[in-house]
Design goal:
Largest sheet: 5 strands, antiparallel
Low-confidence stretches: 1-6, 86-90
Number of domains: 2
Radius of gyration: 19 Å
Order of helices and strands: EEEHEHEEEEEHEHE
Bound molecules: zinc ion
Shape: elongated
Number of strands: 11
Distance between the termini: 44 Å
């Protein structure tokens, strides 16, 4: 059996509905000889539509789920956390990195009541522009991974140029922005809704 465990999962692939899917984790139902079980935090691709219930399981994850099912049956468990085997540091961090990038790409072209996502840069930075004052910009930049998990620095800056491009943005001085806070990945969606209002299609 060929199982490419060392192959990093791509941050972006296809959702079960056919739209672009972003790597995320969810609890998957799993049929076991001794009952209906579940695997928690399994990596899957899903699109950014809140209406869509579809997803795609990456093939490396599907292979691993078979092994997890065997293990759950052997131990008579109904619930288990997803993990790779063997768990080496490299694999764990590849997976972590792709998860963070999949999460970030999900914001591509998103628009809120009071702000819009202008750019997603290198899979690690999100640039937003205020709709109320177009000289007001915000960035979410992924920080080095720590014990806290995946974290982002949320900053604000003002720029007279109301049509910032990638080229213009990277030339701005590094000290120009004011950090508003540091957030965990899990807190980011809620914070943006609170700060900028509902998502507009
Ligand atoms: Zn979908």
């Amino acid at each position: 059996m060929l199982v490419l465990l060392s192959e990093a999962l791509s941050p972006v692939d296809q959702c079960g509905c056919g739209d672009t899917g972003y790597l995320t984790t969810r609890t998957l139902p799993i049929a076991l000889n001794h009952g209906a079980g579940k695997v928690i935090n399994a990596p899957v691709y899903s699109c950014s539509s809140s209406m869509c219930e579809e997803y795609t399981i990456p093939s490396a994850v599907a292979s691993r789920l078979d092994e997890i099912a065997d293990e759950m049956e052997a131990k008579e468990l109904l619930s288990m956390q997803f993990s790779w085997k063997p768990t080496s540091d490299g694999e764990a961090s590849d997976h972590q990195d792709s998860l963070a990038q999949g999460f970030i790409w999900r914001f591509h072209r998103r628009s809120y009541e009071d702000a819009q996502v202008l750019l997603v840069i290198n899979g690690d930075t999100i640039l937003l522009q205020s709709k109320l004052d177009p000289t007001e910009y915000y960035t979410l930049k992924r920080l080095e991974d720590s014990k806290e998990g995946i974290q982002f620095s949320f900053s604000k800056f003002f720029e007279d140029d109301e049509e910032l491009t990638y080229e213009k943005f990277i030339e701005l001085e590094p000290s120009f922005q004011k950090e508003l806070g540091i957030l965990k990945m899990e807190e980011l969606e809620d914070m943006l809704l609170e700060e900028f209002g509902e998502i507009i299609d």
